Each structure stands twice: as structure tokens, then as C-alpha cells.
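retry 2 of 3: previous attempt timed out while embedding 9MR. Reduced batch size to 1 and resubmitted. Inputs unchanged:
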Amino acid sequence: MKIELISAVTVIVLLATLHSMAQKSLGEATKGEFLFGVAVNMNQVKGINPIETELISKEFSAIVPENCMKPQPIHPKKNRYYWKDADKLVTFGEKNNQAITGHCLIWHSQIGKWFFIDADGKDVSPEELKERMRQHISKVVGRYKGRIKGWDVVNEAFEDDGSYRKSKFYQILGKDFIKYAFQFAHEADPNAELYYNDYNVETPSKCDAIVELVKDLRTAGCRIDAVGSQSHMHMNLPTLDSTEASFKKLRDAGIHILITEWDISILPSPYEGANVSANFNYSKEMDPYRDGVPDVIQQKWNKRILDMFGLFLKYRDVVDRVTVWGLTDNSTWLNNFPIHGRKDYPMLFDRNNQRKPVVDEMIKLAEKFK
Ligand code: 9MR
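retry 2 succeeded.
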């Protein structure tokens, strides 16, 4: 009896392995259209969960670190850098032959307070902040010169109404901090692509501001290869139309697009977009799918994924990469944001590391464009 059970399990595992070997990966299916990437955490890079590590290696043609290259983790103190994790991640991507994005050089969030203050705790002068930015960028970009395809140079510099976010960078240096960041990154690795990255790019006022920024940067002689549209989405917003309108606007201005942090939360949203400073209290009504997602809701989510993916494919002449912000429903940041402790289902792989059926539909759709 025991032996029969073991053989049955062996056959099932074997069949599942053969099935997954026969499946095309997302990276293969989108080859020639755009790169298909994933944000990875250090457990995945280190192989702590080997199944996840294997999926990342096989399914995707690009990776981006979810956290380890951000200013705080990589440059925790003025004269201290922490390279271990980022080094491992870059080696991992190279081993898998994946395009690696550096994320991110200048961001108001996840950055040490030391960056902006002097020994007396006062704001540093504009010259000093510029010098600190130069050092940070040239050290980080320089270390991986020739190994990183492109950098998210500045992240989230605008509010949704298109005004500049009043970050410390902006308060001390004004809007020129963006230009300096692009200049320093280009000096450190002249062959690396350079991107501006933000959320809610579908909001017309924000999109307009980003287009103006790119024009200004180009007029100032800066290299900028693409705008990253994070694309943290909900079930209803952004609409397909507003997303397409933002793509059109960018394309008309001669700007390439990266979908940099794609996920579609299936849960009710207390707000729209991904303002990282927002947080809300837990309630059961806001966490309705603890025991699983009803079929009708799942179908709605599937349709939304396919509609958006179809749009990315339609704009494949200017969309150079689509990256999902996490691998499985287990590890997504959305389980804890903007409400802590919910159970979300925003990713392409489920809590058992299985590809969701919609991925096959995505692959079929991508193949139609070949
Ligand atoms: O997914 C990241 C999460 O693990 C971090 O705790 C969080 C800290 O702010 O950052 C998340 O990633 C963000 C990305 O770097 C920039 N755009 C918004 C993403 C989600 O907050």
C-alpha cells in the first residue's frame, strides 16, 4: 500500500515536471516583442526556496532587485556600502542570461537620513548634497559597469497633479537634482540605459509632467532611454483607456516605455495608485478572499490581466520591457500594503508556486503578435 502510494506520487511529480518542461516560458513567448522581467528578493537569489529560484531562472528574461540596490540597503552610512546582496543578484542574473535593471539610484524613500544632514543634524548645503549624490551614484553604477542593462535613475519625483514632490532632494537642490542624477549615472557607465520611473503615470497631469521632464533632460543634453510606468493596478483602475492614452502621449513625444512594477491587486482598494506613504487600518471587508477567490472574481482578474497585456503587446514598438513586481502571491508586497496582513492574489504564480492558468493565455496572446 505504502509502495503504491509512493509510486503514484512519483508518477504525478514526473508528469508535472514533463508538463512544465513542455511549456513555453513567458520570457521565450515575448522574445522579439519585449523583455519579460520579475522583481526578485534575496531569498530567491540565495535559493532558500529552490522552486522559486528555478522559476525565476526559467520563466523570465529580465530581473530587477526588489530592495537590495536601493539607497538605504546599499549605502547605509556615509562611508559604508553594503555590496554583498547586490553582488549576488548581479551574478545570479548573469548566470541566467537575464537583462538586469538597477533599481533605484535616487528616491525619497528607503534612503538613510544621513544623506541629507551634516554633523550638527542640519540640512546639508546644495553643493554638499550634489556631491553626495555624485559619490553615491558613481560608486553604485561604477561597481556594476557593463553588467547592468539600465538604471532607474530617479524614482517618483512627481505628485499626481504633476507638481514636484517636495522631497529633501527637491527642497535642497530644486528640480535640477534630477538632471544631476542622470549626468552622474551617465558618467559612471556611458553604455548603461537610463530611466525615469514613477507610479500613476496614467494620470494625465503626471504623464504631462514626465513628458516635460524628458524634454528638459534631452535639451540639457542628458541621456534618457525610457520612462518606467510602475503599473501597480487595481481591478477597475487605471482604465484601459487612460493607460493607452498615457502610452500614446509618451510615444508621440518619442519616448520609450517600460512597465516596471506590474501587479493587479484583486482586493478592494482604499485609495488608487501606490503612494508608498499611505497606510490604512485592517478590516474584514477589505480582506474578502482569505479562503480563496470566487470564480467570477477570478475571471474578472484574468480578463484584466489579458486586456492590459494585450495593450502592452499592441504598443510593443515602444514598450521595451514588462516586469512583474514579485513572483508569487505569497511574497507580494501587496499582502501588507496599503493594509497590513491581507491576502492578495496579484501575481502570475500562486501560493503553491504554480503558474496560474492565465499565463498560458498570455503566451497564446503573445504568439499572435509574432
Ligand atoms: O516591494 C518593495 C517592498 O518590499 C519594500 O518594503 C517597499 C519599501 O518602500 O518598496 C517596495 O517596492 C517599491 C518600489 O521600490 C518602488 N515603487 C513602489 C514599490 C512598492 O512599494
